[in-house]
Amino acid sequence: MRLRLHGKRLRVIAQLTVIVMAATAFAPAAAPADEATVTIDNFTFAPQVLTVKAGTTIKWTNVDDIPHTVTSSTRGQFRSTALDTGDSFSFTFRDVGTFEYFCSLHPHMTATIKVEGTVGKAGSGADAVH
Amino acid sequence: MNERDQQGHGVSRRKVLECMTWAGTGVLWTIAGGVPRSLGLVDAALAAEPAGLTFLQISDSHIGFDKPANPNAIGTLEAAVGRIATLPVKPSFMIHTGDITHLSKEKEFDDAQRIISQAGLDTHYVPGEHDVIDEDVKLYRERHGKNAEGAGWYSFDQDGVHFIALVNVVHLKAGGLGLLGEDQLKWLADDLSGRAASAPIVVFAHIPLWMVYRDWGWGTEDAAQALNLLKRFGSVTVLNGHIHQVMQKVEGNVTFHTAQSTAFPQPAPGTAPSPGPMKVADDRLRSLLGITEVTVTQGQQRLATIVDTPLQR
User: Fold this and answer.
1) Considering only CB atoms, which chain B residues are within 8 Å of A110?
2) What is the DSSP code (8-state) at residue B267?
3) Distance (Å, rounded) from C-alpha B234 to C-alpha B302?
4) B276 at interface of A, judged by CB pairs closer than 8 A
5) E strand or H helix at B83, and its extent?
6) Does the CB of B275 have a partner CB in chain A at under 8 Å?
7) Is pTM, for the whole model, over 0.90?
8) What ipTM score was computed for the predicted complex, to two decimals?
């Protein structure tokens, strides 16, 4: 049992290392990224419309009693897994534009991220934190 | 239809409406050749002694849910299954109208199956949105969707009644509601073609197939197309879950009914800031959860008798 647990922990560390390395490889050489947060509660994304500078990492946290997802309305831009109470999902917006998203479990929940500025067009990266 | 017992029907509906804000049991269905009827309370149902096909509906067991609205969703599902054993008429089978699990986890599916199987009844499932959130909808498909079409729809016949299980919780679109989709509607048209209009039809799906409350997403985007295919049939009963309370509506030959949850109640439309789990006093919770029994009696005016039974009064 101890051995198996130990093995599992080692594997997790190995995976984390890969993620960190990947993040480092793709991170822009520029200044540290801005951060912003969206809270999911009462079947609502708050704020409904969030305006950020390009390069900002947005972190959604679900504090509702019911699981929700963060899913871009345009297929394939960004998509979290189901976030249970207390779970978070982060995504870095590098492209300028207006990004509509919704909860794929409760599609009447919709909101918007507006990304301003002229920083790089290198595409966006995502990492989900659970 | 023409000779509908207006008074009796009115009483039934009123009783349903009385219960609407808190409902959460199972629904006992009796199908009897005409329009479905809810007796509203289990005592009335027991008095009716239905003679026909009787089946049971349970819904929204949300195994895995552990928040204050009900920290013991396993216990209340067990209580619901326990109620089944006390029914005077053993149902022929059971349907589960989705949200079996809370987070589509393997253990949640396993726990639900272990408890539900104790009822000793064949159980026909449809998925709720909580059952399809694992990658590729693998777990639900493995357990309950093996012989189904597409995302899990199918039909079967029992005692002259045609049952149709529909899926309206996948590929949902931003700003939208429940969705059946083109493939499923095409399948439904094929499934119904050639059937006699006199054949009683029972349709079940997770999200209501009528617009209960758009602001909370309590409806199905393309339900009208499905209902259009069903309108030539003399008696259609539509059974749903999702909203964790009893509501009933009759429209032409179609009767719509939603079942209580076995896990936690949700507020009546528009009475709370959101449709999330409703916390009630502990000693009141089980009066808001329950099962539904349906009895179908052929050759009578009414198609179905529907009885919602709370776990506790």
Assistant:
1) 174-175
2) P
3) 11
4) yes
5) helix B73-85
6) yes
7) no
8) 0.80
